[in-house]
Amino acid sequence: MEQFDARIKTAYAGFSTPSYRLNAALKLVRLYVRFLNFISQKQAQQKVRDLFFSPIRTKPSSRDEALTKQVKEQKVLSLPSGAEFVSYVWGEGDKTVVLGHGWESRATHLRMIIQGLLEAGYRVVAYDGPGHGQATGSESDIIEFRDMYFALEEAYGPFYAAVGHSLSGLALVNALKKDLPVERAVVIAAPAAFPEVIYKFARILDLSDPLHQSLRSSVEKHFQGDDGIWERFTAYKNVSSIEQPCLVIHDEQDEEVLLVEAECLTEALPNARLVTTKGLGHVKILRSEDVVQKIVEHLA
């Protein structure tokens, strides 16, 4: 898989902050980190670490609230880490599909997919992860996102299929590596190389090399000093045991996660197919009727 590492690293050599992230708030955060670094490198390192693990909670729209009111069941579940998250159930179909949202998102941001699956006759389970949506907490990580699939399977399974967008797509592949019992999987706009998650974050915050390296050390420390996380959490490594048919969906103009990551993941998985879209980017891909149809067809 070293060839995948090299391809992805080369593709991200010229990575720049996605255009939709370039706003006044980001500029203020960059300035604040630089100021902290000037007066105290230790404070700056801690701040960067906190920013990495702390999602910005998005406010629900009227459509989010309307979909939440339609749930058949909603409850709080716990993870091995002690964190809590909120689960939602829609529909009464014989087959159940579990959906995972991305970083700084929420269950109802997948409403087009939820509605499409309900119309196709499925029961749908989704969640707000720790620090997201209606869940408590202020931090989360890849392990909690992975473990939510297992916690939901225990509470609502068996699951017929699982879907993950962005970070949840990466978490889903990691759950499949640990034998999540589903028959089919869908990965949408997901990062595949875990080291590049850190690299992109550093580029977006315009971190100096020392702060970037400090962040890598902080992430390893967060995971009990384990420097094996960079390979273990990378989606395209150690996947030979994943037998489920996997549909990988990615937009060619995704500025957040480059298409090369989806290509490498698809090539590595034993039974995967890549479907690309054009002009939808990282988020609008969730609101595409064509994408929803592709998902429903894959699950049929």
What does this structure look like?
By secondary structure, the chain is an alpha/beta fold. The protein has a single domain, classed as Alpha/Beta hydrolase fold, catalytic domain (Rossmann fold, 3-Layer(aba) Sandwich), CATH 3.40.50. Helices cover 44% and strands 15% of the residues. It has 12 helices and 8 strands. It has helices at 2-11, 24-39, 41-53, 62-68, 111-119, 142-156, 167-177, 194-204, 209-222, 229-232, 259-268, 289-299; strands spanning 73-78, 84-90, 96-100, 123-128, 161-165, 184-188, 246-251, 272-277. Strands 1-2-4-3-5-6-7-8 form an 8-stranded mixed sheet, with helices on both faces. A hairpin with a 5-residue loop joins strand 1 and strand 2. Helix 2 (24-39) runs antiparallel to helix 3, helix 3 crosses helix 9 and helix 6 (142-156) crosses helix 7 (167-177). The protein is globular and about 60 Å long.
What's the topology here?
Blueprint (H helix, E strand, L loop, with lengths): L1 H10 L12 H16 L1 H13 L8 H7 L4 E6 L5 E7 L5 E5 L10 H9 L3 E6 L13 H15 L4 E5 L1 H11 L6 E5 L5 H11 L4 H14 L6 H4 L13 E6 L7 H10 L3 E6 L11 H11 L1
Parallel strand pairs: 3-4, 3-5, 5-6, 6-7, 7-8
Antiparallel strand pairs: 1-2, 2-4
Helix pairs in contact: 2-3, 3-9, 5-12, 6-7
